[in-house]
Amino acid sequence: MVKRKNGGANSTGYLTYEPDYAVPPGETLLETIEKMGMTQSELAERTGRPKKTINEIIKGKAAITSETARQLERVLGIPANFWNNLEQNYREKLAEIEERKRLQLQVEWLNEIPLKAMIKHGWVKSCSDIIEQLQEVLNYFGVATVEAWKEVWKKVFDNRQLAFRKSNVFESESGAIAAWIRKGQIDSQNIKCNSFNSTAFKRSLQEIRSITNEPPEIFINQMRKICAEAGVAVVFVPELPKSRVCGAAYWVNPDKAVIQLSLRYKTNDHLWFTFFHEAGHVLQNQKREVFLEFTGKLAEEEKANRFASEALIPSSEYKDFVNKGSFSAISVERFAKHLGIAPGIIVGRLQHDKHLPYSHLNNLKIYFKWAEEA
């Protein structure tokens, strides 16, 4: 019995088929000796192997060892690598069949993963066979089994080893967050960084602060370059449904930190505050473990918030501006120019602190779109 293989046709246009059973090399051996008019007893005698061993090989109960393959080469005139390859292919097929049986019981796990969005973004390919789809997703996460995935990410979430900024309004789903973080891990591998240096990173933040007025096609490359020189990889990864994450900070190795941004709210005030918030986590906790250790306590988030606020708008300057009580577009733009930052950042801060309604001065903010949305 055969089944149609995924994809339906190969590059030649012909349908491709893959058997759902494994053919033991003993069947080929039996056909070979029968064509030669040789019995199992005679083969056993000529190879010097017990008749029972030859019979078990033919029935698929015993493997063809490298030694046996050499003996078969001498007796039958068929190269040893032919028999070794048959045996290897047989064992691989058995393993594949067993894996499919095991994975068939775990396909429901895919419901916990934002698969459609991952396929849309091109992170994983779409497979018509559900088992192959499951294998594709496991490959994406770099794990062999669903059990291994649960163990890896349970450790991350239970120990709160990720410092990330997310929506306070909605609950996030772990599968979506894991898929989003994994994409950042993958993308960060392609960013070459110097060894992390906290002093250099602090200096880099001042330089990055000065490019908040630049358009994305300029500031993205610049901030990546500047941060990489200090040992931090900056990656932009689109938000996934139900992830509701603005940004994350973690370590991929002892010398390389990652700041991952999602553009969740797609305005420059949120983007820059999130970046400096995550930069605060990197600087405030430098244990340099595989992931940035994070207790999840409110105090830690508040500390990162204060760092971002101070880095973007020094508290003394902000207090003087607020005390003047003038929040017109002209005054905001003048204050932003004085600080050397984008006006939208000032607007976002004033809105957050209730000095401005969220409906006011939004024209001073810059709105972003992912290239695939534009």
Look at the structure and give the mean pLDDT: 86
User: What is the distance, rounded to the nearest whole angstrom, between the alpha carbons of the first and last residues?
Assistant: 49 Å
The radius of gyration computed from the alpha-carbon positions, rounded to a whole number of angstroms, is 30 Å
**Number of β-strand runs:** 6
Taken as a percent bin, the fraction of beta residues is: 5-15%
Give the overall form. Answer: elongated
Please describe the biggest sheet, giving its number of strands, its sense, and whether it closes into a barrel: 4 strands, mixed
Unreliable runs: 1-17, 289-295
Q: N-to-C SSE series?
A: EEHHHHHHHHEHHHEEEHHHHH
Question: What structural class is derived from the secondary structure elements?
Answer: alpha+beta
Oligomer: single chain
Would you mind describing this structure in some detail?
The protein is α+β, with helices and mostly antiparallel strands. 53% of the residues lie in helices and 10% in strands. The chain has 3 domains: 2-104, 434 Repressor (Amino-terminal Domain); 108-147, no CATH class; 159-312, no CATH class. It is built from 16 helices and 6 strands. A 4-stranded mixed sheet has the order 3-5-6-4, with helices on both faces. Strands 1-2 form a two-stranded antiparallel ribbon. The two termini are 49 Å apart.
Would you kindly provide a brief summary of this structure?
With 374 residues, this protein is α+β, with helices and mostly antiparallel strands. The protein contains 16 helices and six strands. It has three domains: 2-104, lambda repressor-like DNA-binding domains (434 Repressor (Amino-terminal Domain)); 108-147, no CATH class; 159-312, no CATH class.
